[in-house]
Amino acid sequence: MSQQLTHFDAQGQAHMVDVGAKDETRRVAVATGAITMLPATFAMVREGTAKKGDVLGIARIAAIQGSKRTSELIPLCHPIPLTRVAVDFELEEADSRIVVSVTAETVGRTGVEMEALTAASVALLTIYDMCKAVDRGMTMSGIRLLEKLGGKSGHWTGS
Amino acid sequence: MSQQLTHFDAQGQAHMVDVGAKDETRRVAVATGAITMLPATFAMVREGTAKKGDVLGIARIAAIQGSKRTSELIPLCHPIPLTRVAVDFELEEADSRIVVSVTAETVGRTGVEMEALTAASVALLTIYDMCKAVDRGMTMSGIRLLEKLGGKSGHWTGS
Amino acid sequence: MSQQLTHFDAQGQAHMVDVGAKDETRRVAVATGAITMLPATFAMVREGTAKKGDVLGIARIAAIQGSKRTSELIPLCHPIPLTRVAVDFELEEADSRIVVSVTAETVGRTGVEMEALTAASVALLTIYDMCKAVDRGMTMSGIRLLEKLGGKSGHWTGS
Amino acid sequence: MSQQLTHFDAQGQAHMVDVGAKDETRRVAVATGAITMLPATFAMVREGTAKKGDVLGIARIAAIQGSKRTSELIPLCHPIPLTRVAVDFELEEADSRIVVSVTAETVGRTGVEMEALTAASVALLTIYDMCKAVDRGMTMSGIRLLEKLGGKSGHWTGS
Amino acid sequence: MSQQLTHFDAQGQAHMVDVGAKDETRRVAVATGAITMLPATFAMVREGTAKKGDVLGIARIAAIQGSKRTSELIPLCHPIPLTRVAVDFELEEADSRIVVSVTAETVGRTGVEMEALTAASVALLTIYDMCKAVDRGMTMSGIRLLEKLGGKSGHWTGS
Amino acid sequence: MSQQLTHFDAQGQAHMVDVGAKDETRRVAVATGAITMLPATFAMVREGTAKKGDVLGIARIAAIQGSKRTSELIPLCHPIPLTRVAVDFELEEADSRIVVSVTAETVGRTGVEMEALTAASVALLTIYDMCKAVDRGMTMSGIRLLEKLGGKSGHWTGS
User: Fold this and answer.
1) Each residue's pLDDT tens digit, C115-157
2) Is the Cβ–Cβ distance between F99 and F139 less than 8 Å?
3) What is the CATH number of domain E25-151?
4) Where is the Molybdopterin cofactor biosynthesis C (MoaC) domain (chains A, B, C, D, E, F) (predicted)?
5) Between 3.90.460.10, 3.30.70.640, 3.40.50.1780, 1.20.1090.10, what CATH number should domain B25-150 receive?
6) What is the CATH number of domain C39-150?
7) ipTM above 0.90, yes or no
8) How far apart are CA B113 and CA B87, in angstroms?
9) F127 touches chain E (CB under 8 A)
10) Any catalytic annotation for residue D95?
């Protein structure tokens, strides 16, 4: 196979890969993920968004703040000046599941996939934290990249 | 339902709940999660652990460091002086899947579930980052608490 | 005057003062502060808390998160494991002013005044940030300690 | 009123607003603030700047460092590569008051008002911290933007 | 040799070692280090400490703040609530060398050697930063532990 | 002498110097440093890199992550979006010494010397941390800049 893990040099040592010669272009990434919970927990979260105890509002803020810490958390990520982060939640009652989707953007030399994925993960972890007193068995899943725009590799969409 | 989301007060406003009256006891949490990839990507990671390009070694360090940032990422988490963090990986070839499990411990007034779950998430995100040049479609799933010891609620195990 | 600034040693050099011999006791601090704005801005914030665009909900989260960063921001502050942080807002329509009050608590060897004051400042800065597109002239004032409990100096209340 | 709080989308959900299409221009912001203390405390600080126990020198460093953490503290702030930060203090003996003014600059897609205001707040909090052992009643006030240059909105000065 | 690197488990995998069963005792560590420069640079620093341009005052603050970030920088370090940090400088004119010594203390389950060493390193790096415009060839050396008190291993002093 | 410490203004007050008018150019810095240990410790580290207990692999990751925190640690450093970081180790058996060299790059308005030097220091501190259980007397030395490219001052190499 000719493909390689670019985060390692020819000797197999990790490095932060050189992006200095890449163009500064607009780059977008969209990530998603979900957390499944008991129906009673789901009802609590849904009511909170309308009335009080706004779990999703807090998870949204945590996700945005988390996206800004990506290069501190992921060892070989480049620091990136994000130009936009948006976080949406969908409530799927049939499965007692909350789906998050995050769009991250920059004008820079490397992509923002990790920023979008990190934000999605932090959103789900925050929902877990806020509901864990009533439901420890919640599970996070389906965290993945949905779409990617910009840079040399161009447009990519997940299946 | 008499249960409540403890991160909100009687008016529905978020707060960092009072744990000052709780005893300092030994507390343990075990969390897990997995990332599924293409067979070729899985092979690259597996070979790296034996020879060079050590993806899992780096993901382990990222997870340990991430556990220490939990209270910065999750808005209502208490800062906790972790006394132990251990991270293990299992390579499930049949499913081209890597499973992480994290054990976190403290001697403190509140549990370390979020520290274990955050570490597991950061481990998976780091694997994604290091392999994304060859496989953008990897998916993270099954991130959940496996076990919890200590504190008033005692021993809990996931199903 | 026999009193001294304890953050300096006998040679006038800054240090983080020794609190190792102090008892671990429950310590509470309450701080307050306010931001004054145009009546139209005030109306926007007030409506947001009821319906959408929840400025104060976001400022509350920022304040709680900010309190956890106090020892990183204030050079000679000791790192402190906070056991409780609560943030309240009062809307004073007559003056187009929003008043924040923060209660911080720990069980530790030194007080949490700086944590409460830092949280109050971050709450006000966040309100400024979210409203600055419509009102750049907002002013923050009256940021001070209201009350302090615990430690050798005992109970103190501001005038 | 046609004006809107730009940090919320059409549904009232918070987001980090898109600045990707804005030009990279030189942007300057000047913020101010003050802390009022007992005359004896004021005398201690003033002497320290000349001789030993340099409260203001430490507050200046804290302010510069704080400006670099703005996007971590203020949830919807964009990360900005600051190109200059300067911090000045004026000692107003008649009122036992120390006035800080901060100038922040960048070449970027969005303004640096929050960086200047955050630095001013951190300067005042640091002065409070260093003097609180002798004067718990100090009050911070008048924290506001004085001037703003650059960007689409052009030159703005406070009244 | 029967000794082992405790940061690895029996399989050679890194972990944050379990200190939960250790007693909370007073622990002290003293570290040192030096930076050698051109005589003209040395003269500039020495004059600054007396008059203006206080390089060492700023390096002292940076060292204290750096000590609080140790567990973020050193992957397998436990987070530790420092109870005291003191930083001293000695100016050795004969060698155009500035020697830093840092004392760090905690009441905790593990030692503070890394906190003292990290603070010493940050002090030297800060001196380098502030003088590099006039002297790029400065060299940092002799960074080592001088003394260690507390914990099971008791009192240790360097040769 | 006409040279000046640029981190101070005409009044001797520290500031983050204005780099807004500088061009964005490619900038490279190479730094080095070493840690000397007992021969038995050296043998343990060398074996670990081949088999298990990978001290240098972890130190490399810590160095890369540390380089991204430089502007948080060094008070007057500008935040810089690094475009490349590479870390190499050389094992000098005759002296039981491990030499680290770090190359840092950016496309920006100011140099990356401090990023390279900070990364080198963090690498050495991490090696110390991982080996200190068997060898407390290790010494770090020779931390200095080797080379610098880009910016107005052009190419510089250490003697």
Assistant:
1) 999 999 999 999 999 999 999 999 999 999 999 999 888 899 9
2) no
3) 3.30.70.640
4) 16-151
5) 3.30.70.640
6) 3.30.70.640
7) yes
8) 14
9) no
10) no
